[in-house]
Amino acid sequence: MLRLQQLQQILDTKAKSKVDPNYIEVPDKPWRVILRYKENVVDVDYSQHIEFPGTNDYSDWNLCFEPPVASSVGFWVGYRGTGFSYSKSLTKNAGRYYSISSTGANYGFNLRLRRFNTQDGKFSADEFEKGQTTAYDTAVNMPSPVWIRSVYINGYYVFNGRRYSQAAAYNQSVIQRRSAGSLLLGATWYQSSFDYSDIQNAVFMIIGHGIYRAKVHQANLGIGYGYNWVPFRGLVVNAMAMPTIGIYNRVKAYKYETNYDLSPVEPVDNYGDWNKETRTWANGKTHKPLLMVKDSGNQFDYWDVEPEVKHSMFRFNLDLRLGIAYNWSNYFIGAQAQYNNFNYKNDHCKINIYDAYARLSFGVRL
């Protein structure tokens, strides 16, 4: 027990020595228990450009997926800036969401995991046909769910860590006593996948150039700025903005080949039976126009082809955060919000993911 107390004294002395006490107060009580209520929102936009063979016609369409807002309640228990959390979802069909975070005087770390599926979406398109443009905008129900998974890892370095603390507004491990700001150096690693590989979604695969799953790995670097405003003792309001540039961007698109394509519809259906061994129709053609697919009895066939891997650089992403906290005695309350935007593309498709959350918290120091 004595050794544990000595270790705690060493850690407390080290934590206090890293900050200017005129600007940042390190509470004597290092343990915190925090109750949290959180809402997380994700919006995924999937866009494709289609050109029809043999004509000058084309179509630009977009699928937008918005799963239900993920509401959850939970708690966080930790020592100084490090701890663990547990939460329980209050929303059905909102997917699973996990997060881990740690902060110190000059650094911060955050890990977020998200996994969900949905069949509900919004479909919009601009079609150019025979010299005329037609716009569509309608709700759509996918025949089979679309799965979206993402991993987000973020770390940042605070240049003015002696006088400015992100933690003061976001996990209350310290208390900001005076207003101060700092430049921030940030790095993020982001990877995600967009998957609707169930063959029930075949129509979307065909018009999407055969793509049924896309995976992205993206590394970003950025310089931002954060500011803590302290209008009176105990209250702090934080705003942080960090634009980032993708220095590594790898997209791997998995594709199906099928016996249908976007060829112009022929007046007579003389294709006959499909031969899976030779992968040809009875008339010797390898593809049948998609719009000749019948409601029943069609001979649809598909098979995997070599995936496409694309590398690109200098993708622009954005990290915005807003936090407020009030401390009194050994208690504190807070509200935080964060917004991220990620995007990636290959020759034909583009995917934008918008990820944001808002959180309320109440805690006590022990």
Would you summarize the structure shown here?
By secondary structure, the chain is mostly beta strands. It contains three helices and 20 strands.
Can you tell me about this structure?
There is one protein chain. The protein is mainly beta and 366 residues long. Helix content is 7%, strand content 63%. It has three helices and 20 strands. The strands form four sheets. The protein has a ten-stranded antiparallel β-barrel. It has a two-stranded antiparallel ribbon with strand order 1-9. A two-stranded parallel sheet has the order 13-16. The two termini are 17 Å apart. The mean pLDDT is 84.
Strand and helix map with partners:
Blueprint: H1 2-17, E1 24-25, E2 31-51, E3 58-65, E4 70-79, E5 82-89, E6 96-103, E7 107-129, E8 132-158, H2 167-170, E9 175-176, E10 180-195, H3 202-207, E11 211-229, E12 235-258, E13 260-261, E14 274-275, E15 280-281, E16 288-289, E17 302-312, E18 316-328, E19 331-345, E20 349-365
Parallel strand pairs: 13-16
Antiparallel strand pairs: 1-9, 2-3, 2-4, 2-20, 3-7, 4-5, 6-7, 7-8, 8-10, 10-11, 11-12, 12-17, 12-18, 14-15, 18-19, 19-20
The general outline is: elongated
Briefly note the structural class of the backbone: mainly beta
What characterizes the major β-sheet? 10 strands, antiparallel, barrel
Oligomer: single chain
Number of strands: 20
Distance between the termini: 17 Å
Structure keywords:
366 residues, mainly beta, 10-stranded antiparallel barrel, two-stranded antiparallel ribbon, 3 helices, 7% helix
